[in-house]
Specification:
alpha/beta; 9 helices; transferase
Length: 233
């Protein structure tokens, strides 16, 4: 089995997700106690995709997160660099109108400048080797005035909740991962979550990448967070 490390070499990360593609959505539900579903609903509401818009869902994996945008009438691209994930997604989402799957690297997106009205990435930004560069790439492909929504793991501001969350990541998540086809991948996910910047630090990274009107909202007491931003053009 392939296990990526925190240097996040693209080939290692892609191969790791290839190895867990078939059960990825199930394991996400197990490891979050079902909260991932409510988080994804929050993303859909916050992005507010509209008929006729062009939406990029980066790190879309099997496309589960992309379907609601297409169903809202937006022309949606589900982009990921794991071919294993994309193959599963193409099969599972067959027949979903306005949804296309494209293989692509977050650091070199295969799209023209200003190609999208809205871009989003859920639980994938922390798997990219260069966060700042990925945020600049997302801004490049977003039209002036277009919007960005990042849904990512985060850190509860309450000290007691933060302690319990860390215990879950260090002990509970590896136990749950035993039902997966690649347990090492979920050990990596725990490590990458613990190493990820908090809400304010991610907001600063967004601002440094040129995004404007940056704000965030905690989900589930800060276990995850939604960061909003606008491309000033």
């Amino acid at each position: 089995m392939t296990r990526a490390s925190l240097d996040k070499k693209p080939a290692d990360v892609a191969a790791m997700f290839d190895g867990t593609a078939e059960r990825y959505d199930l394991l996400n539900t197990l490891m979050t106690g079902g909260r991932d579903r409510s988080w994804r609903r929050a993303v859909v509401r916050a992005l507010d995709a509209r008929p006729g818009e062009r939406v990029l869902d980066l790190a879309a994996g099997t496309g589960t997160s992309s379907v609601p945008f297409a169903e809202a009438g937006a022309s949606t691209v589900a982009c990921d660099f794991s071919l294993g994930m994309l193959r599963v997604g193409v099969r599972r989402q067959a027949g979903t109108a306005r949804l296309n799957f494209v293989a692509g690297d977050a650091l070199r997106l295969p799209f023209a400048d200003a190609a999208f009205d809205a871009v989003t990435i859920s639980f994938g930004l922390r798997n990219v080797a260069d966060t700042g560069r990925a945020l600049r790439e997302l801004r490049r492909v977003t039209r002036p005035g277009g919007r960005l929504l990042v849904c990512e793991v985060s850190h509860p501001p309450n000290p007691l909740l933060a302690l319990g969350h860390k215990a879950h990541l260090r002990v509970g998540l590896p136990l749950l991962a035993r039902v997966g086809s690649n347990p090492d991948s979920y050990r990596y996910l725990a490590e990458s979550t613990l190493a990820w910047p908090d809400q304010a630090a991610l907001a600063r990274l967004l601002q440094d990448a040129g995004w404007d009107a940056v704000r965030w909202r905690d989900l589930t007491f800060g276990v995850a967070a939604l960061h909003h931003a606008t491309n000033p053009g």
